[in-house]
């Protein structure tokens, strides 16, 4: 009887250990597989009707449909019309020759700003201590700031924006 | 110019919203309850197997540790709300399991004078509460891990001092079983190197953060490898060599091995130069060969590693016993309190703790434990990837690397993958200093992960008068 109890307790303990470990893994699973979209909801600037029109399954499968920027487009300045595809690498902006986008702009610093994707998948612009500052829309940024689609980033005379 | 005022006005009316990041504190609370439950269940199981009845102080211990965990949880909830939700529960679970295993080995150790008269478990329980108290204090008062970056050189000095202290003290104070890594005063003993290692990891992170460009770029090419300039590498190399020499003098090989590995890993992460790994490996092989030939202490270990069954009643007895324990455990183990791993004798509740897990919980339980350790390491690395400041990145990654190496060196030594070097299994093994140092490590990771997952503050809006569109 005690032998059976002890065996059951032993197996119970092993099962409990594994359940604990598996729950922990389930908790961090979203991070491990980078399913940031389902965890981090960014307030959308546009008032787009969400419910009703879109089937539930489709919405769940592609939650950020239409909201993912695919390139960085230069809308004005000496480089106007050029674009850089967005990958996993950060994009550096400045007059330095090793920048991703080399700005030929008297108001730009050699390492002016960078644009990168943070862990949640949000594109973020960060000023790298430039002399004349980086503006997101009309706001001078002081730290890393999230960049929504289509909002102009101004560096000197150059204006860039994220596009689909 | 395609910029008209309309989209700008529309954008200004809807500033980019603050991202909603779940804090996940409730799941942490749930996991903590689960962790406590596992430890108490294991304790009841052990008591039943060894004495035939559930231990009388089960409820009291449950309440005591429950309150401790609750305090830790509330502090994290209040002061580090975005911290990683699994670090604290997983560490608590391993700590609880370790307490049970120490309790399980106590009868033999008391009878053979390997533990204090009252047993090692009550001491370890006190250290656990103390460790969690240190954890709580650190989470409350260290509000930003970048503060530590300012004290880089002080960290280095204090860290080296802590590591060097036992080597210069007389052996009567510092020597325990051939390893001079202790400070014993009265009935109280501390292993200062455990705390020194954390300070040195902080120094490495801060220094390499400041110099990483110089180390990675301002280098000469030599035989396809990039050799950095001496003035960039000098301070850190001196610090490292000094620490290594001291540790070898203290014959504390496990710590020196961990230290070396962590150093190489942080250097690699800071500079992204693969040549460092190659360098590290070469240095390590050379150093290990030299040490193995010089020190008889190490030659014995290497011999035991290669031929564990050559002298099963003498020098290779412990390793052979450990291997027997793993074999006896099989897939599901003998059950807590029903194995024979205590016959390993000395350090059966410290360096050889894993043999008891292997025998009494079997391969299934051992794997679960390894996965739990892996979770802590993975969360440390993930924190390093997420956190925005470079010092925090290197620090978190360095802490995770230290922890991972410690697990590998200990587990590898006991299971005969590498020669036995003698390190306590983190959170599992008996030893107050190591336990407290590990709780400090988890507190630091909690603090850094809070900074990593905390959403960015929204940009400060300025009025239109203050900024103007630059017209081309």
Automatic annotation (TrEMBL), chain A:
PROSITE patterns referenced in this protein's UniProt entry, alphabetically: FHA_DOMAIN
SUPFAM superfamilies: SMAD/FHA domain
Gene3D superfamilies: 2.60.200.20
Residues of the FHA domain: 91-141
Pfam family, one: FHA
Keyword Electron transport attributed: no
Descriptive protein name: FHA domain-containing protein
Organism expressing this protein natively: Actinocrinis puniceicyclus
InterPro entries for the chain: Cell_Proc_Reg/RNA_Proc, FHA_dom, SMAD_FHA_dom_sf
Keywords associated with the record: Phosphoprotein
């Amino acid at each position: 009887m005690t032998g059976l109890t002890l065996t059951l307790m032993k197996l119970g303990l092993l099962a409990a250990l594994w359940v604990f470990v598996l729950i922990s893994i389930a908790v961090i699973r979203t991070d491990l597989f980078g399913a940031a979209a389902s965890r981090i909801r960014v307030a959308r600037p546009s008032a787009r009707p969400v419910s009703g029109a879109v089937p539930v399954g489709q919405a769940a499968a592609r939650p950020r449909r239409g909201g993912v920027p695919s390139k960085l487009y230069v809308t004005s300045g000496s480089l106007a019309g050029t674009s850089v595809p967005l990958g996993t690498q950060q994009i550096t902006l400045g007059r330095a020759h090793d920048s991703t986008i080399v700005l030929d702009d008297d108001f730009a610093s050699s390492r002016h700003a960078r644009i990168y994707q943070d862990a949640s998948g949000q594109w973020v612009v960060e000023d790298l201590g430039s002399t004349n500052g980086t503006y997101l829309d009309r706001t001078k940024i002081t730290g890393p700031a999230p960049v929504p689609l289509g909002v102009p980033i101004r560096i000197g005379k150059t204006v860039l924006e994220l596009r689909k | 110019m395609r910029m008209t005022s309309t989209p700008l006005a529309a954008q200004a009316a809807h500033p980019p919203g603050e991202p909603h990041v779940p804090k996940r504190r409730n799941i942490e609370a749930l996991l903590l309850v689960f962790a406590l439950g596992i430890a108490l269940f294991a304790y009841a199981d052990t008591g039943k197997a060894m004495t035939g009845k559930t231990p009388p102080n089960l409820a009291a211990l449950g309440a005591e540790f429950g309150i401790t965990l609750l305090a830790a949880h509330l502090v994290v909830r209040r002061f580090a709300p975005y911290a990683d939700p699994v670090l604290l529960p997983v560490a608590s679970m391993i700590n609880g399991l370790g307490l049970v295993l120490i309790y399980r080995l106590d009868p033999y150790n008391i009878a053979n004078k390997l533990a204090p008269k009252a047993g090692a478990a009550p001491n370890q329980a006190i250290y656990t509460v103390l460790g969690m108290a240190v954890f709580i204090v650190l989470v409350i008062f260290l509000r930003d891990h970048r503060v530590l970056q300012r004290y880089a050189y002080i960290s280095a000095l204090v860290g080296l001092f802590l590591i060097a202290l036992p080597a210069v003290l007389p052996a009567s104070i510092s020597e325990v079983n051939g390893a001079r890594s202790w400070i014993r005063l009265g009935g109280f003993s501390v292993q200062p190197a455990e705390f020194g290692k954390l300070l040195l990891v902080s120094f490495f992170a801060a220094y390499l953060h400041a110099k990483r460009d110089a180390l990675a770029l301002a280098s000469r090419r030599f035989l396809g490898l990039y050799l950095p300039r001496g003035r960039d590498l000098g301070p850190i190399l001196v610090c490292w060599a000094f620490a290594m020499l001291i540790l070898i003098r203290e014959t504390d090989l496990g710590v020196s091995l961990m230290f070396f590995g962590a150093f190489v890993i942080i250097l690699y992460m800071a500079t992204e130069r693969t040549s460092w790994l190659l360098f590290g490996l070469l240095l390590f092989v050379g150093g290990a060969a030299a040490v193995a030939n010089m020190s008889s202490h190490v030659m014995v270990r290497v011999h035991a590693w290669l031929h564990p069954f050559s002298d099963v009643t003498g020098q290779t007895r412990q390793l052979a016993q450990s291997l027997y324990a793993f074999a006896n455990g099989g897939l599901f183990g003998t059950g807590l309190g029903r194995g024979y791993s205590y016959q390993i004798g000395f350090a059966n509740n410290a360096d050889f703790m894993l043999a008891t897990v292997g025998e009494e919980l079997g391969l299934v339980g051992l794997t679960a434990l390894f996965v739990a350790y892996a979770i802590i390491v993975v969360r440390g690395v993930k924190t390093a990837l997420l956190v925005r400041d470079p010092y925090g990145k290197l620090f978190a990654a360095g802490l995770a690397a230290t922890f991972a190496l410690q697990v590998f060196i200990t587990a590898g030594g006991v299971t005969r993958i590498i020669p036995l070097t003698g390190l306590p299994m983190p959170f599992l093994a008996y030893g107050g200093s190591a336990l407290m140092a590990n709780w400090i490590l988890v507190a630091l990771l909690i603090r850094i992960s809070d900074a990593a997952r905390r959403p960015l503050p929204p940009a400060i809006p300025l009025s239109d008068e203050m900024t103007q569109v630059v017209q081309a």
